[in-house]
Amino acid sequence: MSDVAIIGGGVIGLSCAFELARCGRSVTVIEREQTGFGASTVAAGMLTPSFEVELTPPSLVELQLDSLRRYPQFIADVETAGGLSCEYRDEGTLWVSRHRDDELELDHLCQIQEDRGLPARRLTGRQTRQLEPYLSPRIIGGLLVETDHQVNSRKLMIALRAACLAEDVEILEDTTVNTVERTRGRIALTLQSSDSASILHADQVLLAAGVWLEEGLVTPLPTIGMRPIKGQIMHLTGQPLVNRVLRNSDVYIVPRAGGKLLLGATEEEQGFDMQPTAGGTLDLLRYAFEILPGLYDLYVSEIDVGLRPAVSDHQPVIGPTDTQDIFIAAGHYRGGVLLAPATAHWITEAMIGGQTPAEIEPFGIDRFVQESRVEAAG
Ligand SMILES: Cc1cc2nc3c(=O)[nH]c(=O)nc-3n(C[C@H](O)[C@H](O)[C@H](O)COP(=O)(O)OP(=O)(O)OC[C@H]3O[C@@H](n4cnc5c(N)ncnc54)[C@H](O)[C@@H]3O)c2cc1C
């Protein structure tokens, strides 16, 4: 019997477990594979609310900024508790432009950033290349967003696991949750591991199963239409070529310690397919080569694939559900790493305080219940 059972050991499940445990709850995380098996370990780890700010509703931009502000303390807490580094870096993002179209896009992005109080600095081609000398001579301008940061998501997942264990979170790996049901005032979860089936009881449950939320897991939730958006990401190694995240509308290039570079990422509707493809790899290399020709001589160390959990409006689903004591934190799509500290903070407030904080009200599951009522009436 636990106070809280969390289904899914991704960045969302583990961040919430860490926060709830630090607030005195006894927490069990149940993970079908190993923690970090899902999208979280694949993620580039960019903490960039600036990205697509124009297409993002203000409430989500607010949540992203809130999470970004929480990041330094979150990292300090995780690293102190578990004793492992997350490789958090704060050099900012440099958007680069190759032609007039890109230039107009950067002007526009700069304006939107300023309107929303997000600082950004427009640069000439020469200033841009002074910051990053290996950039192609064809780069004609840039936009520096210094408030964007990044974390090594692989290290973060390992550090978060250690931090959870240090806070006495119980982690059951290689264990699948098949059903979640509320009976006689508490919640029962049926668990299946390779050698046994069992039932776990908890006072509260948090559903954080990523894109698999509606795959084989039976819950009292309404259908929310969770779907996978496949992302391929390439890992290169060799001479260090860049100091900060570089990006344009086609590709991003993320530097990691030891001369490693990540090129990302494709956005594909391919169901649950997790195979890398020649076309995906070709696109990433082609777009990145246009910006950074020196990567021609780097070694390909890995091509990784992850499934981003997305619902129809591409916004996360965070908060209580219609079933008492069952909560949800899922559908973080392209921003789960960025949104982890805020999600953990506000869901903990909701689970312990019994009220839904205003900050997460726009992300309630009731928007799907209302949608299905309208459909039924029509
Ligand atoms: C290529 C790529 C690049 C990305 N880059 C960024 C980025 O730069 N910045 C950013 O903020 N975000 C990024 N993202 C998005 C981010 O990775 C996701 O939003 C985030 O990882 C979602 O976390 P999660 O914990 O909800 O899901 P997941 O990490 O997928 O975790 C869900 C876990 O639940 C487990 N599970 C599922 N069903 C069950 C069950 N029935 N029983 C037990 N366990 C179960 C799974 O095994 C899995 O481990 C990227 C994603 C991809 C694919």
Inertia-based shape = globular
Sheet/helix structural class = alpha+beta
Number of domains: 3
Give me the CATH superfamily of the largest domain: FAD/NAD(P)-binding domain
Strand content: 25-35%
Count of individual helical segments: 9
What keyword list fits this structure?
378 residues, alpha+beta, FAD/NAD(P)-binding domain, D-Amino Acid Oxidase, Chain A, domain 2, 3 domains, eight-stranded mixed sheet, 9 helices, 19 strands, 28% strand, globular, binds flavin-adenine dinucleotide
List the helices and strands and how they pair.
Blueprint: E1 2-7, H1 11-22, E2 27-30, H2 39-42, E3 46-47, H3 58-82, E4 88-89, E5 93-97, H4 100-115, E6 121-124, H5 125-131, E7 141-145, E8 149-151, H6 153-166, E9 170-172, E10 175-183, E11 186-193, E12 197-207, E13 227-237, E14 245-247, E15 252-256, E16 260-264, H7 278-291, E17 299-310, E18 317-320, E19 326-330, H8 336-353, H9 366-377
Parallel strand pairs: 1-2, 1-12, 2-9, 5-14, 12-19
Antiparallel strand pairs: 3-8, 4-8, 5-7, 6-7, 10-11, 11-12, 13-16, 13-17, 14-15, 15-16, 18-19
Helix pairs in contact: 1-6, 1-8, 3-6, 3-8
